[in-house]
Amino acid sequence: MLDPAHHPLIRDRLARLRDAACPPSDFRRHVADIARLLILPATAHLETSEVTVTTPLTSMTGHHLARPIILVPILRAGLGLSEAFLELLPEATVAHYGMARNEETLEPEIYLERIPEHVAEAEIFVLDPMLATGGSAVAAFNGLKRHGATHLHFVCLVASPEGMACLRHHHPDVPITTAAIDEGLNDNGYIVPGLGDAGDRIFGTL
Ligand code: PRP
Ligand code: URA
What we know:
Bound molecules: 1-O-pyrophosphono-5-O-phosphono-alpha-D-ribofuranose, uracil
Number of domains: 1
Oligomer: single chain
Distance between the termini: 37 Å
């Protein structure tokens, strides 16, 4: 499958999203469009199980997803992706992690955790547009694993090389699907060139 970072539609939407003049209404739309385009690569290796399907003409062997799906948007900015994922995966359960990065220490502070009981048997997609230092994503996977989760995935729009390395180091079992890997982090822990503060741009709280 084509690397999402090289897909023309994703590159087009991402360039529009990065533009500092893009207003929140367009920003939300581009975030959702890229999320829709990332669903196929992010789910490409999910296990399926065989089922017998009776068509109007005959019986055949078809395939269903082997496990239930849980989406875990990291609040706030992850909500921009979860709505798009739910359109294609309406049967998914939505869990939530509320996290805000302390802008001095750059450490994530958890203010909400809502994890459903069937977390151990499900395919879990943690959704957050930004993988910067990696602290927020690592904290989310630490929490999910404490609850027994094992089938884990991470989907973001823009990652830094530092964030990729951090997440791979702490959770090497988690595949990462991203629309872009940027140059690096600045002194404030922002991704460069990046797109700024994703949560503020989605919700217009700049
Ligand atoms: C942003 C972003 C990630 C986190 C990434 O959230 O959405 O959750 O920062 O940074 P990290 O990889 O260095 O942890 P933020 O804390 O700004 O909260 P918000 O979504 O409410 O704006
Ligand atoms: N959080 C964001 O929203 N953007 C960054 O570049 C880094 C952290």
